Amino acid sequence: MKNKQPKILRNIDILIVVIMALFVVTIGRYFILQVIQHSEMEEKIMNIARDNVVRQSPRGKILDRNGRELAISRIAKLLVIRPDKVGSEEDIQVLSAELSPIINIPAETIANRIREGGAYYAVKHGLESDEEAAINQLKKDKGYECLWMDDEVKRYYPNDMLAANIIGFIGMEDKGLEGLEYSMDSIVKGDVQEEDVLTDMRGRTIFDSIFSRSQQRYKGDSCKTVTLTIDATMQFIVEQVLDKAMVENQPQSVTAIVMDPKNGEILAMAARPSYNPNKFADYNMDVIKNHAVSDIYEPGSTFKSIVAGAALEEGVVSPEQTFYDPGRINVSDKHIQNWNGESFGTVTFTDIVKNSINTCFAMIGQILTGEKLNEYARKFGFGEPTGVELPGEASGMLFETDKMLDSDIATMSIGQSIAVTPLQLCTAMSAIANDGVLLKPHIVKSITNADGSLYKENGREEVRRVLSSATDKTLMGLLEQVVATGGGQKAQVKGYRVAGKTGTAQKINKDTAGYMEGRYIASFCGFAPVDDPQLVVLVIIDDPTAGAFYGGQIAAPVAGEIFAQLLRYKHIEPTSDPFADMDKDQNKKTSQQVANTAPPGKQIMPDLSGMSIREVSQKLGEMGLGMNIQGSGLSTGQSIPANTVVDPGTSVTVYFKP
Amino acid sequence: MSKVEPLAARRRGLKLWKNNHEAVLTLVIILLIAGLFNVFSSTFVMAERDYGSPYAFLIRHAVSMFLGLVLCFVGARVDYHKWRSLIMPVTVILLGCLLVVLLFTDPVNGARRWIPLPGFSFQPAEFAKLVSIMLAGYYISYRNGLGKELNLFNRQLGVVGLLALLVYVEPDMGTACIVMGIPVIMLMVGGLRLSKVKWLILGGFILVAIMIYMQPYRLERLMVTYDPWPYAQDQGYQTVRSLMSIGSGGLFGMGIGEGLSKYDYLPEAHTDFAFAVFSQEMGFFVVLAILIVYMLFCRYAAAIAKQAQDMYGQMLAVGVLLLIGGQAVANLIMVSGMMPVVGVPLPFISYGGTSLVMSLFSVGILVNISIQTAREKEKELIREMLKKEPQLIRRPGPKLRRVK
Asked: CA-CA distance, A393 to A395, in Å (whole number)?
């Protein structure tokens, strides 16, 4: 047959031999790759596919004493674009145009950033859930490879500025930078665990790794919750009062501390101006630091309460002992004079304290000797950090006993030429309010483990007895006189017994170590109620510029307002009828004022007495409160007393009689 | 007719199959099954991600396979000589399709290769491979029939060249090489004079030189093939990833579905580089088995070619041998990094509808050539039998017939 040409048959044989030879070579090649180089190749691909996953549990919460959240961690979604994978200019514009309405960022902003290139562009942090859903849909519809979302653990401070100086904030990688976030870092810090998993090209886990622990949200074992002694409501009240003080006095800053003298708990600690820890980068260091523990200042006359305590305890003076005030004395070439530059004549020790007579205190200091002054200052906790859980605490400055000149004794007796921190002074005043026993101040109430069990609890920690109980009672009486009839009268709260001491110190020029003319630090430190002290309040107004600068003029009223609101908030019964000496008009005015300063989300029960049913219902309706009517005519009583802080929607039973 | 074959079988001892085309079909079915597994394994991740169902690619592959098997049956049943008369209109339609692809379609990944139709799309270039084989087979048998020497420059080869050029500008270098290469090899098998082969080789070199001159990156690709590791992040990326995939399989493989490469680590893991995924999951022993299946296919295809009844059938068989076996070996060599990366699929195993349909259709033609040979042989056998034992003419029946 014609097709059986031997030449062609031979060519087919050659062809098949060539193909078979190629196959044999291929088999050899696969043998080399799969058998000889197997482990090498396997290692290579595993190096690419294996991913070291670092998992971090969210940082522990910081709560106030009632469990309100001050700092929380939440998982946020971060939208990421890989600019180098977006593609052509047209793709960039399409992508930007599609994303823009979803995330509310101008398309041109997105497009410009993509054009800059690079491998990572964090488009938007903290996506809302509807944004997340819309982006997922977009990815599904268009199959964008260059677009994805990452999980981020974000620290969030739900109350923004509230207690910011105490809480602080965190920086990158879960690291506390300021405040409690810094000092409690090792406690609240999330756990970090590392694990090797297999991933696909985009780093998502595959195979068994999908079931690995890294997929689950990691709770962590050491993720502890810190509960503070701070009461968020009290903190809020104090901060509001400070805001007002800022407006009225135009100072450089104001600082306030509220402590519970019975157990050393810090209930509120605030400063103005302050900052928002959620946006800490927008603020400078001056407003971020916690003045209450890290700043030192000359305490001025407020320190006289310590000197008075020492003098009474040592028996150098008694309340009724009389002194002659020359109006001006010279001690080793230093002039000491009274605030008004005049002489008070012959005065009792009580008057000396009441009127804060410098000359007499300088004399008492000399009688007491520098050694004793220093001893008591140290006993009251000055000269060393109090040991509170806050970072950056200063020690203050005292004299070295053996190097003290007479003039040093004189100035120290009136609270000058020494330096203390606000917290030290407040703690010392707490000791006076606490029957003469110094307690260690603390701001962390308890720490709980991730599983809810208690890790640590801070209770009352006694440091030492500074004054005997009897001396302390006498001193408290003297300090009450300061507020009742002396220089601190503006701190009075109607119906309550308040004690305390005012202070006015000249600011120290940090450059020349001299005093700055016309620059003052006005302060008031006191406690209430005197018969059973519950609150110690310190207010410091730094460099007021609105005219008045005496502690008794500007700091005492601020403290008084804090006392007034906090005593009511704590439901502390007045010792006398607060409205005894007021007519009806003032009564109304006061209640109006109180209502203005209701804590956030709360209402203050109005005084309804003497109102008609219609008036009562209108009034309660405006405030979002409910009411039950009993009887008819004019209101004679109410089930919840006036000025009580209540939740909106609370029902009050009102009794009416014709 | 089949009543005669058992005799032949008995003469040659125990066989797995009665004739060449049964062998070919059995081997193809083995490859199709391996392909089904591999298509699913290499695509379910991508399919889930892009199409929402892990079976998206598997279903398309299965549909193409069904269509291909129907065409295979048609090819096996219809006398292959009939295709010869259709060659002119088919070539014209194909040229039209290739022009449509170049002029009217949108590029996908930078290349215009597909004609989108409702429900599916197809690649005319794959079709061109088969048409070029038919054209070359027609020319060789025609010249031999005339008793004239084969020429390099003729109308049919000119058309083939035009097809290859159109495919090349898609661009699809790999397919263009196949479209042009198979007819050239067929020409050499068909008895092209050695002196003309020299010119062919020279022409080939000039072509390569021109291409390198015009597109210098091709030279880089050649260099990369020699040692891809320093280029693991750019030109050598695919090769390196492929080598890692194959090597990580070891003797026994990672297991079906357990391969790493399909998680975007290997580009084209389901098409041209399907065998890398297969090697990774199956290991060396199964790889060896598959390679042997391809070798056996070549062996039986060659047997069919050698026994073919006429020159046209013989050349067609050589063409199909090259289409399946040649592409297979080219793909395997490319995947294992011994050749620059060009787009050559692995017949029956790579995902790709048009390629699968065309491969199965060409197998059908091969089967038809073999069937005709067997029928012819049988006739011859009967004639011989009748010559030896004339009495059988009168009594055909029980003695010759074996019960199946």
From this structure: 7
